[in-house]
Design brief:
β1 and β2 form a beta hairpin. α6 runs antiparallel to α7. Helices cover 39% and strands 19% of the residues. It is an alpha+beta fold. It contains seven helices and seven strands, in the order αααββββαββαααβ. A four-stranded antiparallel β-sheet has the order 4-3-6-7. The chain has a three-stranded antiparallel β-sheet with strand order 1-2-5, with helices on one face.
Amino acid sequence: MAGEVASAIATDTIKNQFTLERIKKAIDNDEQMLQLIEETVSIANDNILNHSKAHPETHGMGTTIVMAWMINGKAYICWCGDSRCYVYNDNRGLIQLTRDHSYVQELVDMGQLNPENMHTHPYANIITHCLGDSGNAAQPECHVYNMNDGDIILLCSDGLTTMCRDPEIEQIIKEHDPATCCESLISSALENGGYDNVTIAMCEYRTEQG
């Protein structure tokens, strides 16, 4: 309900919080960068909850989030929910850098569900953390990834990953350049029966030497 409102609030909050002054203070320290990102996501969660209280018609709205701040050869990744961050490289293929905050992921972690059956499980749509949940803390998770020349960072909502399995996503990235890849991924999700919002962002990392 009103998920697009929650998403807009989260996006605007992140833009407003990432001021040049705050970035300069944290840029040379991984721990401080992760703290800045995690605090920003927590503020976004508070803003969503406050908006929901002030506008009863949006009560119950929420959103997942995934973000990556790429600087100095590193990607500072933060997420809450089942939106994902992947990295693709011709030498290593596609690797998922985030871990879903979902019921089925917890079953996999406990050894009670085969990862191959995550998408077909009857409770595959249940997430355990998101922004805007008044009953539970957001609990964003953060990670630092050291980028390699030629890495392609992919951020996406579950509108892509519920319709396209990782091998298909990998093949599409392999066959397209970043400029056309997003459109091809979205088209594939829709052709596979996509019924949810498909949000995708991509960025290719190249060193000066590369």
